[in-house]
Amino acid sequence: MLKYTLKRLLAGIITVWFIATATFIAMHQVPGDPLMNDKAVPPEIRKNLEKKYGLDKSVPEQYVIFLGNMLKGDFGISFTQQNRKVNDIIRDHFPVSATLGIMAIFIAAVGGVLWGALTALYRNRLPDIIIMFLVILGISVPSFVFAALGQLLLVNINSFFGYSILPVAGWGTFSHMIMPSLVLGLGTMALLTRLMRSSMLEIVNEDYIKTAKAKGLSPTRIFFRHQLRNAILPVITILGPQIAAITTGGFVVELVFAIPGLGRYFVQAVQQLDYTVIMGTTVFYGAFLVFMVIVVDILYGFIDPRVRLK
Amino acid sequence: MSDDILQVENLKVEFSTYGGTVKAVRGVSFSVERSKTLAIVGESGCGKSVSVQSIMGLIPMPPGRITSGSAKINGHEIIGLSAKEANKYRGVEIAMIFQDPMSSLNPTMTIGDQISETLMVHKGFSYKEASKQAVELLEKTHIPEAAKRAKQYPFEFSGGMLQRAMIAQSLACNPTILIADEPTTALDVTIQAQILELMSELQQSEGMSIVLITHDLAVVAKMADRVAVMYAGQVIEMGNVDEIFYQSSHPYTLGLKEAMPSNQKDKGKKLTPIAGSPPDLFSPPSGCAYYARCPYAMAICETQMPDEFLIATDGDKNNNQKDSDHYSRCWLQHPDSPQVDSLYQSGRTNVS
Amino acid sequence: MNSYSPSEEDFKFVTVLDKGDQLTRPSLSYWQDAWLRLKKNTRAIISLYIIIGLALFTLVGPYLWRTDPALQDLNQISQTPSFPKKAVVVGPYKRWAGIVLNDFPAEPEEYLDFIPAPKNLKVVDAATTQQVRLSWDPVVGAGGYNIYRNQREPESINDLGLPLGSTLGGNEVSYEDRLNLESRQYYYSLVSTDGLDESDAYISIEVTPQLTIELATAKSRGLVDESSNEINVEISLEFHPMGTDYLGRDMLARLMQGARVSLFIGIFAPFLYVLFGIFYGGSAGYFGGKLDAFLMRFADFVVALPFLLFIILFKIGFGIGPGESGVLPMLIALVLLGWPATARLVRGQVLQIREEGYIEAAKLLGAKNHYLITRHIIPNAMGVILVTLTFAVPADIFTEALLSFIGMGVAPPTPSWGSMCNEGVKTMLSHPHELIFPALFISITVLAFNLLGDGLTEALDSRMRSRE
After folding, report:
1. Is C466 on the interface with B (CB under 8 A)?
2. In this complex, is the C-beta atom of C25 within 8 Å of any C-beta atom belonging to chain B?
3. Quick check: C114 contacting B, CB < 8 Å?
4. For residue range B92-145, what is the model confidence (pLDDT) as tens digits?
């Protein structure tokens, strides 16, 4: 298990290097140059600026410096807000995105397992049909529509009761987090419900469920002790990649609900072609996602004895 | 009164599928005596597994459906019971082991826990008591280092060891009947012999009856007291083990015997396979199901389902039960039928 | 038991020619069988029809519905779906001097504690969407009047709606409203002021302006003859069956044009990267060894890239020149990032199929690589590939919509369903149809492809086939 963990971590570090390199290459493909935004900069100032950002050096040199700074965990200074370090921007805004994401994935995982188990239990009966209809909606409706509808719902609820039950936008208190994380988790929840359902139905046909029946166990006991536990395993394996999906969905939710998260900041930085912020955020997100996938995989190992003991 | 532990009468099971209804079991009757072994033998798809699984209530319904029949354990009807009522018998009176031990145990639970689960549910043992008993059961099935093994997961066991664990699990509540559904098919030949040995040994010590499902005549010869030969969802010949082997009264039984390798007689003789394949149970033929493959097929066989012809009654003449009778579903047992040399025909062939 | 009594004839031996090997069920090829199964799946077939319908909508629609998606119909801005509207042709707008009374003081002569609401609030001339002119009787003590407009009947003085403006003297007793007038019910309210503070009393009237169009505009849009000078005749305006957006552009025409972008990206990008994935994963799986290890390690790296961030990065990396729609950069970005999933899947399939008995058998019979690949491996992997493709389409339609929604997709004025949602969400509260229609199209398309994919999976799944 330890060896497995170390191996995964090493592979993770190489992956992050690959992400950083790809980011660097992509950003150097962008037409125009980073200082184009400041119109009519006098040549001397331009030279100074180029020096400040290291743009006067050759591309390979820039690459080496970039990697070196990454290793030190230094993402440089923002182009548009010249007194702000990218590290500070990440430190200020990432916790917001992370909180939103964690709440969403929690809602999605708990909801998905619960609904999925329920649909399998009531297979082809009314609860199953209703939930699966909602699941199909959840998979087919884009996240931004959910975000807009969620906000609309809040506006109507608040105006119905005459005072603000949940804030329509913004960030700060727990009540701000409820609707955005619900909206963000909805798509993933639908996906997990579907997965959980098919996983449950597959396990119903497993031989060991037959054994459990032949042992004379009650249906409830079979459901909880034998079916549920084994059915959750495949759901956990896709949680890692789903964290990535939730993060990207977070961009939209942050925009619609005016949440000061890193996603919104990234979109803004792209619109302003703020090179250092774009590069820093991309590499940071990439590293975060790689790390999360590893964490989920290792966690999975603790739950599934077949992985843990090998 | 006979000493029947399990009596199955006229069991019929159907499955509705995409294309229509498959009549998997078409009126099967058999009974098992105390401490005796009944072997149900037949090729794959003949309905032998479905028969016993429907008795145990293990057929998924839908698509499966028991259309008629009864099964009694010590006189108690067990077909059509609710899950709660059925669980008074399942695992207690009647236990079952399956073909593939690898997939028949929960992969995420330790062996010990899976055995003690039965004890906790049926006998109300505490976890500690049950775990202790589980280790004893594992020892009984000759698993070395049972205490350590009980804490392991199924994937850490070999196939033979797993089947031993399955047997240990089924013995937990001292069942009166053990149903073994092809218990050795998935195992190596050497392991097969060990498992069969273990089963006979436990039958001696525990005094339980065994229903052994197999397609292997060698296993039948080694283990069985009574044999039911099944073909296309019906029992086509039933009798004591010697009668089945030495007075085979159905061409299919003859065919099975000829397809079986033997090391005593007929050295150098080629094995004869049974040509063709069994009928599609989608639309079973109106006559004898074996008609198409039978070397002695007669005109009547195509359209008329043969009766159960009594070949021999043993023992108590006043006994109405067919416990020890030998009978066969074949028109060749009809008094007007022509003589066939290789087949044992009631009243014509001398007992060899 | 059996009541049949056999005759002697019955016991004659017969020779059976049919040994039971003959199949009682008809023999079907893999694809025939899959198609039969799919046909039984009502949901999948309905989805298939919807997809065909969408294809017609996109390809044939613009030839049937010839309204220019870029044309701005300023008479009908943010119009909800409706039947064709009639409008009255009017001449050009003429200035209105308003009503200022000379025999009434502009400044109040004394400041009263309470100024009553003005009386006799009425419409002067005809109320049209060109202008609504109001007049009222002066109030003693008033130093001016505030005019409000609401779309529903005011319930209290706090519910008067949009403040349109105010007059600056007690003797200025008229107001002309020309602010984005639509042909709908309005409630105008009037409150007197003492020059600074508002009174607590108000008066309201209900006005429904007549829809009008200026002659010059009607001519330029070809609604009346160039030579015609008739005024005050009723003509039909352009028909917008699904309404218009915030710039007065026809929603139906824009949805059709948007469908081209969304479906082009959504279908073409998966097609390209699935093709590449087959080639990549197929070679990795078939040749195995070091090549496999290398290719798959690289695919692992690409999978690890944060998808949306890199789509955006690549897209800006390719750049959008002036006048370009940004469809091509997005297509390239999707292909660059999309292929590894298919590659992995195909490799897995090939590895699995390679070990199958029938491949071994074909090899023993002397089959060459080429034959194995074309006759055995590709046909057997085809089902899985088709299913992947079907599920990749909705995923990419989603991605396009998401990117366009956050303003990182196709560049305006090119419409795509996603960018239309982006525009619609801004007017969501007042004109929900601008969000609902594009969102509905996205959802239905995604739903149809997902259900079709489910149906295909079931129809092609060999495991399910063997179960029956």
Report:
1. no
2. yes
3. no
4. 889 998 888 888 898 888 999 999 998 898 888 889 989 998 999 899 888 888
Per-domain residue ranges for chain A? 86-272
CB contact under 8 A, A248 and C429: no
Residues 113-152 of chain B with CB under 8 A from chain A are 117-118, 121-122
Q: Which CATH number fits domain A86-272: 1.10.3720.10, 1.10.443.10, 3.30.70.260, 3.40.630.10?
A: 1.10.3720.10
Contact call for residues B162 and B131 (beta carbons, < 8 A): no
Contact C309 A286 (CB under 8 A): yes
- In A, residues 213-242, which contact B (CB 8 Å cutoff)? 213-219, 221, 225-226, 229-230, 233
Q: What is the DSSP letter of C323?
A: T
CATH number at residue C191: 2.60.40.10
Q: Quick one: C277 and C144 in the same domain? A: no
Number of structural domains in chain C: 2
The rounded distance, in Å, linking the Cα atoms of C349 and A160 is: 56
Question: Along chain C (468 residues), what's the average pLDDT of each consecutive run of 10 residues?
Answer: 67 68 62 82 90 90 80 73 76 84 82 82 85 87 87 83 85 86 85 82 87 80 75 75 79 87 90 91 86 89 83 78 74 88 88 85 87 83 84 88 84 84 83 87 91 84 47
Task: Quote the ipTM score.
Answer: 0.83
Chain pair B-C, CB pairs under 8 angstroms: 68
Termini Cα distance of chain C:
33
What does the pLDDT look like over A122-179, one tens digit per residue? Answer: 888 898 889 988 998 888 888 888 888 888 888 888 888 877 778 877 787 888 888 8
Tokens 């459901």 found at: A223
Tell me which chain A residues have a C-beta less than 8 angstroms from the C-beta of B96.
211, 214
DSSP string, A110-147: HHHHHHHHHHHHTTTSHHHHHHHHHHHHHHHS-HHHHH
Chain C residues within 8 angstroms (CB to CB) of chain A? 300-301, 304-310, 312-314, 316-319, 394, 398, 401-402, 405-408, 418, 421-422, 425, 428-429, 435, 439, 442-444, 446-447, 450-451
Q: What is the pLDDT of residue C18?
A: 60
B166 sits in which H/E element: helix B159-171
Q: Is residue C431 part of a domain?
A: yes
Residues B107, A208: C-beta atoms closer than 8 Å: yes
Expressed as residue numbers, the domain containing C190 is: 90-213
